Amino acid sequence: xxxxxxxxxxxxxxxxxxxxxxxxxxxxxxxxxxxxxxxxxxxxxxxxxxxxxxxxxxxxxxxxxxxxxxxxxxxxxxxxxxxxxxxxxxxxxxxxxxxxxxxxxxxxxxxxxxxxxxxxxxxxxxxxxxxxxxxxxxxxxxxxxxxxxxxxxxxxxxxxxxxxxxxxxxxxxxxxxxxxxxxxxxxxxxxxxxxxxxxxxxxxxxxxxx
Length: 210
Description:
Elements: E1 2-8, E2 13-19, E3 24-28, H1 34-43, E4 47-52, H2 58-61, H3 64-71, E5 75-78, H4 88-91, E6 108-110, E7 114-118, E8 121-127, E9 136-140, E10 145-149, E11 152-153, E12 156-157, H5 167-178, E13 186-189, E14 195-196, H6 197-203
Parallel strand pairs: 3-4, 4-5, 5-6, 10-13
Antiparallel strand pairs: 1-2, 2-3, 7-8, 8-9, 9-10, 11-12, 13-14
Helix pairs in contact: 1-3
Keywords: Hydrolase, Metal-binding, Zinc
InterPro entries: MBL_Glyoxalase_II, Metallo-B-lactamas, RibonucZ/Hydroxyglut_hydro
Cofactor: Zn(2+)
């Protein structure tokens, strides 16, 4: 499989495309610039199967309906943030003066950790709250990658000062679900460059002493 990081929107939120050798793909966090994203998918002759959301903050959901309607595909989200998609007050767009960003409800709502299979894509679903109450991380063991959303970054961790955030819960999520992965696992965050589990174990100042 192959993957591509595409920063989108004013906050340069990382959207990820994961595709197989049949050019079928999953889309993680289409945050903004829906037409740009659709054009890239079409230019690369990819066939989207689903949209997976790590969480429902406005900068991760802005292009959801454009992509969903273009390809007639389902959206997946955790139940703790399922109502954030339709509510600018919950998803933060109102709080940050970004206008009223909202989408229609998701077709599939996760209620627990599980293994998800879509076509021949298999992802382990981890509940990693702390940045937000419904934050998810998607681990693709066969590829040695984890889509971590805004939970863990290169040299940093996600904010926990937004509504529904919890610092201790965030640290627990990182240590229990992400740092227990093989050290060469590549962490694909919601913003900024990729990193590895090993690099963050060794050098992330926010994780020392926990």
